[in-house]
Design a protein that fits this description.
Length: 364
């Protein structure tokens, strides 16, 4: 069997295994969540749900992703970058923390410290943003980060981890955006590097797809911190492992565009809380999905709008990485989807039900 064929079989097998396993394991995760008391009870107006909902679905996502990766992807492909193992170690730390948080609710500062520690593990073992390129002058020399590569990498991974975690406020929102981001990163990786990160991304994508039927509105389960922290961490770390390593002049821009929605929402939310005198780590109704709902959009409308916008950003990022006819194809797809997205947004806006007085922000 040729190496190329073995690679494609590992891709297909990993995707199918991750999707099926995630779908089959989620009901088990729901039962476990009920037994250990990992249930989200709506107590304030931040919550979009009205009934107690198990919140440890991320265990199914993580388990499916791990089994598919090692049991199918790695078993068939047979190649494993040693630095990738440190990404998995960091993710395992966050999954354990997420499980404890879903059951007992840990303090925000403790969670942040553990996130930094988990991000530091791959950063100290070769997974770093070592250089940046000049976006406005491809011929200009690259900016070597030197001793700043590790702290910048850690900040990037922690930022993406929290961005996805904070966006997990509506049924299916964070899961869908993570799936879209993983898929777009997978396509980019497929057309550039084709390494173990490509297989990891397709496992991530498949595990999100398998979980989504249980998480879409009205959700039977939430991914909880177990899932959102794992997905955010993996997206952040894999973007460093793959896309920041590209030789193109827009290598820094690609992951920023791909993850612009969760990143932008987090940054705007933090600044808004600081400017209004609130603790930036305390939850409220200032996220983009809350504001869209306060404008009168329904739960499903908000999720579809943000999923559509995320996919549009993914298409734009893919255009930057393609060459020749592929760039033209993705450019046409991006323009087509942009028109479709704007027309659909206009329709959704007309069908919304305006709310006269949105509920005030409320801290946890």
């Amino acid at each position: 069997m040729s190496e190329t064929l073995r690679f494609w079989i590992s891709i297909g097998g990993s995707f199918i295994a991750a999707t099926v396993l995630s779908f089959l394991l989620t009901p088990l995760a729901i039962r476990i969540a009920h037994k250990v008391g990992a249930v989200d009870i709506p107590r304030d107006n931040r919550r979009a749900h009205t009934t107690p909902t198990p919140r440890m679905g991320g265990v199914a996502i993580f388990t499916a992703c791990l089994i598919a990766f090692f049991g199918v992807g790695y078993a068939l492909w047979g190649k494993l970058d040693s630095s990738f193992l440190f990404i998995l170690i960091g993710s395992l730390i966050l999954v354990v923390m997420g499980i404890l948080d879903d059951i007992y609710t840990l303090k925000p500062l403790l969670k942040l410290v553990i996130q930094f520690a988990a991000a530091l593990i791959p950063a100290l073992n070769g997974v770093t943003i070592s250089r940046l390129t000049n976006l406005f002058s491809p011929s200009a020399p690259r900016i070597e980060l030197g001793i700043w590569s590790v702290p910048i990498t850690v900040l990037w991974i922690v930022a993406i981890t929290n961005a996805v975690n904070w966006l997990d406020g509506l049924d299916g929102l964070a899961c869908g955006i993570s799936a879209i981001s993983a898929f777009c990163m997978f396509i980019i990786s497929l057309t550039t590097t084709q390494d173990i990160s490509t297989i990891a991304l397709v496992c991530l994508f498949g595990s999100c797809l398998g979980f989504f039927p249980f998480n879409r509105h009205p959700a039977k389960t939430f991914m909880g911190d177990t899932g959102s922290l794992f997905l955010g961490y993996m997206l952040g770390a894999l973007s460093v492992q793959g896309m920041f390593k590209l030789y193109t002049a827009i290598s820094f821009l690609i992951p920023v565009i791909l993850l612009a929605l969760p990143l932008g929402d987090m940054i705007v939310t933090i600044f808004r809380r600081i400017l209004t005198g609130h603790n930036p780590m305390h939850a409220d109704r200032s996220h983009i999905h809350h504001r869209l709902m306060d404008m009168g959009f329904s739960h499903r409308q908000v999720v579809s709008i943000l999923h559509g916008f995320s996919f549009l950003l993914g298409c734009i990022a893919m255009v930057f990485t393609m060459k020749g006819y592929l760039r033209l194809v993705f450019l046409v797809v991006s323009i087509f989807f942009l028109v479709f997205f704007l027309l659909n947004l206009r329709k959704q806006y007309k069908n919304r039900k305006p709310i006269s007085s949105p509920p005030p922000p409320q801290s946890e």
